[in-house]
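Dear Dr. H.,

I hope your travels went smoothly. While you were away I took the liberty of generating a structure for the chain from your last submission, since the lab meeting agenda had it listed for discussion. I wanted you to have the full record in hand beforehand rather than looking at slides cold. The sequence, exactly as received, is reproduced here:
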Amino acid sequence: MLVPIDKTLGDSEFKRVSLILCYPHPTESETFSRIEELRTLGVEALIFRGRTNIFGVPVLGKGHVGVVVAALCRDRELALKIRRVDADRENMRREVEMLRKANGVSVGPKILSYADNFLLMELVEGKNLREWLREANEAERVRRVLWELMGQCRRLDEEGIDHGELSRAHRHVVVTPSEQVRIIDFETASTSRRASNMTSIAHYLFFNKENSEVIQRILGEIDTEELQSKLGRYKRNPTEENFKEILRHTRLET
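The corresponding predicted structure, in token form, is as follows:
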């Protein structure tokens, strides 16, 4: 459902927009204020679709800080993250800073614009990592996607950005239809704690029983005790050689 915001909204449209723009406590004044903020970003319409449902309105996602919807901007469909009115932060600037740093090492959806209450970025759609793994049965496909994912986590480590949520990667990693990997949702990312993205994703992939069984069925058996030792070595000394040792051990690099 596409709802333009460049005209006077009808009562039902306004209510629907208000529920999403000011979730979870909508008010008329804040809705009008946020609509004006959207106009300054060039957003022409909101597109209500997705797996998550808020008060009967479908959206792309919902977290502790924001709600994500599709939006039309200059005839291009983008992702719009909307700061919740009860969020634990006054604006989106910290997340913008983290995502901009991640973009600098070719990680995350590309940031396009932002305001206090909004973050406008590349729309990333596809299967979450767990879904994709369950359907991918070809070793070369799995090897290529996981190699790229591990590499992105390594680049975040080198940049000193800790994503903070990769132990639940099925909620934060998307594999697109062309099998591009995108790490999303940097709302809890930080540069003030030790970056542990690569070890977090390795534990998610190879020590989670369900994930590990799928991967080892496709790629072959992996000695997890030895992998744990190699991960400890990388954590103590995160060199390129120690990283490559992990890739070789997990059959992602020969």
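Two observations you may find useful: The chain has two domains: 2-121, 127-249. The chain has a mean pLDDT of 95.

With kind regards,
E. W.
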